[in-house]
Amino acid sequence: MGKKALILDGGLDDGALTRGPGEIAAVALRRARWRVEALVLREIDVAPCLGCFGCWVKTPGVCVIDDAGRDVAGRMIQSDLLVYLTPLTFGGYSSELKKALDRSIPNISPLFRLVRGEVHHVKRYARNPRVVGIGVCASAPSDPEEEELFETLVHRNAINLHAPADGATVICVTEDDEAKRERIERTIEGVIGA
Amino acid sequence: MSDGGGRVLLLVGSPKGLEKSNSARFGRMVVDRLERRGWASEAVHLHAAVRTEAGRQALLDAVDTASVVLFAAPLYIDSLPAPAIRALETIAAHRRAGSVSRVPRFVTLINCGFVEPSQNDTCQWILRRFAERTGFEWLAGVSLGGGGRVPKRVREAFDILAESIDLEILVPDEVERLTRKPIMPSWLYVVVGNSMWRRWAARSGVEERLGDRPYERLDS
To answer: Who among A53, A61, A105 is closest to B213 (CB)?
Structure first.
């Protein structure tokens, strides 16, 4: 049985920005013999995180909100690779992608530890998924500062969520298809081959 | 001194709202200082505002008439909580539609549960890009760590910040110097923090279950 990838599609509105890049990522992963599942987050009713810490100190590992957010969090930690697919939103994630990420904090422990001198949370699970970030910008050319910001954000998330490997790329919707494909494939290969 | 004619809009991006959140408490500390200088204020809870069309319109109206927007939120995984991002998306779409000519000043106040204020840097970067790309004048990004504690030096920083906003002068580096230092060494925060989490879990009778793995993979 191959390894499992979960694509979290954080596209807004009709999803026009993220649909194509998501398909490119899925094809690349299947070619590498990965099983691929995709969640179109705008079609899933996930309530916002309450910031109550109940998932840490009342029902450890499970969000206190009984909705689809629990299922999404479970699928995330049971994957070997997460693909964060999002319209580039000031260098960060869309609200649709972030609603799922916010609800995934039950998957880490509340307890603290030091990582290179900085406070972070302890692992809850022995195995944690690798992370690939794909940011899609609507207008060309993409902003180099926001590309750097997006890569920094994905890497900082990887530290906090214990991803053993991570990588990110930003593509422009106006780029030709071959350029998009090459960039996405190279980023995925860099992470799954690490 | 200014003539006290400004209007500050406090946007609170915490799910705990205007009454119970640290974000609102920190934001109020700055707003109170401005009110003492004659400023008018308004506060909007972003989680509530973005849920309805009427709430989104009220948010946009408030932003359009503000002299200064003070954006106060907690750090959620190196970024903002999802509804706060939704608010940014909504404001950006409105301002890009081209009907707005005012350039409000934009100040951010991000707090995190880690001891190092520097852990807010990525979130502050996102907010600065938002401000730059949507027609706000970026004034300052103030980062707080330590999960809600406000030492005297941070209150001094708020004094300086409010004075700078009021006088329409650059925010001095002193604000960053006063807020950037962690409230205690990181190693000590780990010890104190872990004790707090265990006590908190014990109150719910789950101290021994803190490490539960309810979604453990069957093939692990």
So the answer is: A61
